[in-house]
Design brief:
The complex is a heterodimer of chains A (241) and B (43). Chain A contains seven helices and no strands. Chain A has 241 residues and is mainly α. Chain A has one domain. Chain B is rod-shaped, with a radius of gyration of 18 Å. The chains are: A mainly alpha (241), B mainly alpha (43). Chains A and B meet through helix 2, helix 3 and helix 7 of A and helix 1 of B.
Chain lengths: 241, 43
């Protein structure tokens, strides 16, 4: 399936991202409060959504791997975590680059920022744990358990701005009844979010394909090594006198 | 260039650079795995 899906996904991601980033950088107006710095939102918000949405995907894959023992779910989960960790790190980095001119500080230990940092550690922990065992199935099981335990952090990230008094502003896009953003900013933001989501999906799909090929390669290498260690015994039968 | 634009440039550079780096790493893994599989299957 990846043979035809991956090129289409890649082209769609490049086209949508090209439109979204050009729109955000060159054709959207500066914000009346944030000025030009609002343009960081066009990359920061999609990274935040991918960090959380990607982790929700990891939880679904972990359930599939633990409950139904789906072998592809194991590989997809293992391959998803470095990509998710990168998106989360980029969310923290771009948030910091936005926070310095807007809040006057690079970092503050409020509930939203701290819970996203915990999310980053969960991604990194999953990536490390699934690669820490010689037995890949055991590593996948441990990673799936960690992902399920870490699922409790996703609603904390989402609702931290409502449950606690944070420096981070509350949700402004997902309030569908009355979005807090003007359409001149909202539309390029949604276009960038779609473009980065397509790029994230393409990376995850390609990484899963790489993981599958590497697993097949390892199986063949082990079979070849076993064959070399124990060559078929020749007891003389079948040899003509 | 004002320091606001430095922050904007750094943000876009980090995000696009990281996505490109991931894509290149994954492409290299696929290429290497395919090459080794071909070699192994020939023997």
């Amino acid at each position: 399936m990846t043979d035809w899906l991956l090129p289409w996904l890649t082209v769609a991601a490049l086209v949508v991202l090209g439109i979204g980033l050009a729109w955000g950088l060159a054709f959207s107006p500066p914000d009346w409060q944030q000025g030009e710095t609002v343009r960081i939102m066009y990359v920061h918000v999609p990274m935040a959504w991918l960090a959380m949405g990607g982790y929700t995907g990891l939880v679904v894959l972990s359930v599939m791997a633990l409950v139904w023992k789906h072998p592809l779910a194991d590989i997809a989960a293992r391959e998803l975590s470095p990509i998710g960790a990168t998106a989360t790190a980029l969310c923290l980095l771009t948030g910091s680059l936005w926070g310095r001119p807007m809040w006057g500080t690079w970092w503050v230990w409020d509930a939203r920022l701290t819970s996203v940092l915990v999310l980053f550690f969960l991604w990194v922990g999953h990536a490390a744990l699934t690669r820490a065992f010689d037995d890949q199935e055991r590593g996948a099981r441990m990673g799936a358990i960690l992902a399920l335990i870490g699922a409790v952090n996703v609603p904390i990230v989402k609702f931290s701005v409502d449950w606690w008094n944070t420096l981070h502003q509350p949700a402004s896009v997902t309030r569908l009844a009355a979005p807090g953003l003007h359409v001149d900013i909202l539309y390029p933001l949604l276009t960038c979010a779609l473009g980065f989501s397509l790029a994230f999906a393409a990376l995850a799909l390609a990484a899963t394909r790489a993981g599958l090929l590497e697993r097949r390669l390892r199986a063949l290498q082990m079979a070849a090594a076993r064959k070399a260690e124990n060559p078929p015994a020749n007891d003389g039968r079948g040899i003509a006198p | 260039m004002s320091w606001h634009w430095w922050h904007i440039t750094l943000s876009y550079g980090a995000v696009l650079g990281s996505f490109l780096a991931l894509a290149l790493i994954i492409a290299a893994r696929i290429r290497a795995a395919r090459k080794n599989l071909d070699r192994l299957e020939r023997h």
